[in-house]
């Protein structure tokens, strides 16, 4: 036999939530033939029912509403959005509830923040909560909050226009992607999702700054109206949203559906949410007299997740909290850290790294990113920080709940506060530690680098204080194991005897780098080279000259030394140099306009020559980056200075082409063919070394000349031109065209005269 007993226990209520009770249901039942006792714990609290009017407007009230009614048109984007929403076949329409609960919670956050400095702010309605009631009879779903409310002006602006940047992009995106409404909350247009389930929406709101309560009504798409509330001030303070549920959305009036949805969406809301639901009575379950009376049932446990002991929070809870707080419904965090900082400064925090970097990571329109939510003793303060976290770490999402921040200062001055500065330092340290821990998980770290590798490089450039730490976290593709990434520590551990430099090669892509002539000798000798194929890499090696005492050597630049040169090899090199003096002089004289000097190469094995930038000059890759749109500045003096710097032409003393030229030079036989060959060698070296050709036409002419001589075609032979002339117009058409032209001249004349007249008038 099943029995049911009650035990009731009072609990101390959190500040303004009012009194709560915990209801424990003890159930004895037979499971698999064994007697077992199970407990069900539920919190119940009857909200201040009198303060809120949940009734539908009477006909008389509706009439009165019309008397003060003002009509407004929606902003074009809003109408466009509504059309999309109304016609959407979106399956998960339930998200409207998530958006409304989130808006209500934001509104309560706002009034609670105001109440920190204004003791009267909460007076009109002290209980801070959200209530949800389904009125099946009238097909109404009523959502009420005792938040900050909206003035008449705010009703008009907040629920009639979309101020946020990116709205048009969002509209385009959902238009194309078959309406992924899940994104709606991220774009700051969540409210309008009510039209997924409702054909008419009424928003009643009362703000402390105004005596009157206003009613906003819309049947969607083009316009809305605002009237004074004929019922007077029924809310005290806050907002009541009434959804007139569409015929095909009746499930949102069902208690069971609502119960499930609210539980799902209110788990991480820090205010009590109540659902008007059927009351369980203290009677036998199977009893005939099951009462149908209703009560407000509390749907959520409002203890914030960050206040809980990390040991008791499951991964699933962390992931769900992430989704709710980032409004990234499908998104998952790559990793997170939950900690309590004590000592100099006390705070709790959860920091997440999203598994995907936001698309607009480095180009936010606003000058702040809402990636950190600051609470002080559970009270939400702000998420509008300017430069709180350095730019390179802005991809994180975090909650920070501090114990001791002054609350009577403005949000702007708060940011400079000593405690917040200390918090900031701790957070940066934690993030870097967190990334460092992530390096141990190869798969996750590869994802991390793919998403945030560029951010880390930016960090190594900008964060002087943490450069060493950040540099440790960097990963690069390298010649050691193609397809794999390597850290600088790993590179150093593989360095050859006598090697003092970290060899790197920059370029537009890994493929381009791999084929570069600069790598030939290094690779032939087994030296490892890091492939730097990102535009930011050039800046990185300029700002971070080395790591762990080893400097970077861009193999496309300056003098290349291996560190294993013996006296003999040096002597031999000097000897080679002497042998090539004549050719060097010849080539230099030929290319005087283009190259600084011609030198014997230490880096080439199979290519005849390469163009090398001077130590402080620009590589071909850098030139491309600087002339690309992102960096282009028309009158940048430095830029044109570097761009005009002459380069060094290195020649390979072992290459047959060079040896042939050498012979010609030594024989004083440096004729036209040798001169042409020198030009072409220089130009092909430019291309192979990643620079752009300046004289395309000259290059093409020279190549054609070689083709002619290879194929035995006379240099002066011309293509036979045998084209039939285009047919002339016949006489009549000619006349017509001439007339048309004359008329056109006339009208042009008139237009000129008109212009003159307008000028005179002005
Ligand atoms: N319950 C409410 N109480 C007070 N103001 C509200 C309420 N609901 C909406 N608003 C106001 O209307 C604005 C527009 O709401 P909407 O949901 O469309 O966007 P949002 O809340 O700014 O962004 P998001 O959807 O990302 O939360 C809000 O910013 C807020 O100012």
UniProtKB/TrEMBL annotation:
SUPFAM superfamilies, per the entry: ATPase domain of HSP90 chaperone/DNA topoisomerase II/histidine kinase, HSP90 C-terminal domain, Ribosomal protein S5 domain 2-like
Keywords: ATP-binding, Chaperone, Nucleotide-binding
The keyword Chaperone belongs to this UniProt entry's keyword annotation: yes
Pfam families noted in UniProt: HATPase_c_3, HSP90
Gene3D superfamilies assigned to the protein according to its UniProt record, in alphabetical order: 3.30.230.80, 3.40.50.11260, Heat shock protein 90, C-terminal domain (1.20.120.790), Histidine kinase-like ATPase, C-terminal domain (3.30.565.10)
Compositionally biased tracts (Acidic residues): 748-762
Basic and acidic residues compositional bias, start-end: 18-27, 732-747
Source species, domain of life: Eukaryota
Region ranges (Disordered): 1-27, 724-762
Molecular function in Gene Ontology: ATP binding; ATP hydrolysis activity; ATP-dependent protein folding chaperone; unfolded protein binding
Residues bound to ATP: 99, 103, 145, 150, 158, 164-166, 186-191, 239, 411
HAMAP family: HSP90 (MF_00505)
Family note: Belongs to the heat shock protein 90 family.
PANTHER family to which the protein is assigned, alphabetical: HEAT SHOCK PROTEIN 90 FAMILY MEMBER (PTHR11528)
Name used for this protein in its record: 8023_t:CDS:1
UniProt lineage: Eukaryota, Fungi, Fungi incertae sedis, Mucoromycota, Glomeromycotina
């Amino acid at each position: 036999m099943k029995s049911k007993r009650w035990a009731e226990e009072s609990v101390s209520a959190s500040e303004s939530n009012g009194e709560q009770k915990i209801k424990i249901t003890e159930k004895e039942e037979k499971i698999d033939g064994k007697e077992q006792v199970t407990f069900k714990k539920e919190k119940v609290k009857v909200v201040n029912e009198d303060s809120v009017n949940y009734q539908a407007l009477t006909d008389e009230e509706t009439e009165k509403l019309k008397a003060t009614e003002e009509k407004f048109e929606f902003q074009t984007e809003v109408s466009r959005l509504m059309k999309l929403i109304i016609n959407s076949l979106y399956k998960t329409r339930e998200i409207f509830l998530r958006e409304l609960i989130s808006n209500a919670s934001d509104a309560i956050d706002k009034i609670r923040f105001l109440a920190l400095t204004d003791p009267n702010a909460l007076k009109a309605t002290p209980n801070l909560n959200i209530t949800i009631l389904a009125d099946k009879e009238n097909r109404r779903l009523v959502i009420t909050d005792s938040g900050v409310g909206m003035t008449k002006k705010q009703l008009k602006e907040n629920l009639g226009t979309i101020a946020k940047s990116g709205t048009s992009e969002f509209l385009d995106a959902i238009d194309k992607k078959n309406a992924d409404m899940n994104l709606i909350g991220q774009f700051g247009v969540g409210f309008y999702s009510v039209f997924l389930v409702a054909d008419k929406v009424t928003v009643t709101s009362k703000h402390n700054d105004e005596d009157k309560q206003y009613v906003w009504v819309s049947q969607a798409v083009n316009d809305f109206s605002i009237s004074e509330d004929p019922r007077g001030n029924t809310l005290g303070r806050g907002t009541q949203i009434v959804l007139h549920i569409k015929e095909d959305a009746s499930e949102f009036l069902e208690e069971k559906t609502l119960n499930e949805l609210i539980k799902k969406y209110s788990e991480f809301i820090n205010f009590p949410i109540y659902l008007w639901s059927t009351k369980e009575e203290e009677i036998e379950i199977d009893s005939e007299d099951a009462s149908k009376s209703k009560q407000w049932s509390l749907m959520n446990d409002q203890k914030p997740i960050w206040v809980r002991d990390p040991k008791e929070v499951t991964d699933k809870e962390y992931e769900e909290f992430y989704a709710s707080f980032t409004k990234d419904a499908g998104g998952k965090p790559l990793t997170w850290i939950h900690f309590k900082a004590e000592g100099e400064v006390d705070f709790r925090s959860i920091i997440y790294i999203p598994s995907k970097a936001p698309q607009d990571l480095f180009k936010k329109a606003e000058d702040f990113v809402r990636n950190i939510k600051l609470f002080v003793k559970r009270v939400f303060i702000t998420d509008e920080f300017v430069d709180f976290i350095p730019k390179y770490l802005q991809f994180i999402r975090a909650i920070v709940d501090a114990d001791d921040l002054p609350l009577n200062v403005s949000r702007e001055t708060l940011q400079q506060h000593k405690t917040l500065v200390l918090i900031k330092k701790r957070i940066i340290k934690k993030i870097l530690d967190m990334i460092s821990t992530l390096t141990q998980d190869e798969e996750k770290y590869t994802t991390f680098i793919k998403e945030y590798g560029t951010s880390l490089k930016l960090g190594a450039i900008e964060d002087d204080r943490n450069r060493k730490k950040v540099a440790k976290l960097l990963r690069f593709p390298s010649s050691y194991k193609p397809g794999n990434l390597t850290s600088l520590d790993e590179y150093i551990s593989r360095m050859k005897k006598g090697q003092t430099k970290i060899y790197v090669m920059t370029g537009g892509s890994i493929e381009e780098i791999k084929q570069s002539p600069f790598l030939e000798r290094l690779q032939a000798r087994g030296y490892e080279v890091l492939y730097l194929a990102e535009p930011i890499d050039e800046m990185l090696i300029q700002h971070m000259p080395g790591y762990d005492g080893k400097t970077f050597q861009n193999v496309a630049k300056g003098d290349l030394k291996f560190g294993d040169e013996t006296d003999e090899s040096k002597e031999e090199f000097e000897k080679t140099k002497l042998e090539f003096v004549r050719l060097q002089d010849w080539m230099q004289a030929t290319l005087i306009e283009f190259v600084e000097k011609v030198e014997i190469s230490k880096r080439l094995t199979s290519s005849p020559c390469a163009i090398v930038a001077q130590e402080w000059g620009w590589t071909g890759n850098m030139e491309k980056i600087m002339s690309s749109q992102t960096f282009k500045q028309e009158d940048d003096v430095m830029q044109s200075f570097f761009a005009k710097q002459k380069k060094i032409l290195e020649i390979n003393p072992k290459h047959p082409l060079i040896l042939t030229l050498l012979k010609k030079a030594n024989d004083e036989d440096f004729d036209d063919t040798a001169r042409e060959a020198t030009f072409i060698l220089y130009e092909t070296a430019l291309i192979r070394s990643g620079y752009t050709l300046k004289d395309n036409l000259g290059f093409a002419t020279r190549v054609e000349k070689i083709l002619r001589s290879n194929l035995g075609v006379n240099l002066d032979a011309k293509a036979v031109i045998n084209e039939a002339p285009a047919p002339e117009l016949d006489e009549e058409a000619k006349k017509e065209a001439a007339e048309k032209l004359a008329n056109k001249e006339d009208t042009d004349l008139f237009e000129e005269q008109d212009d003159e007249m307008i000028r005179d008038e002005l």
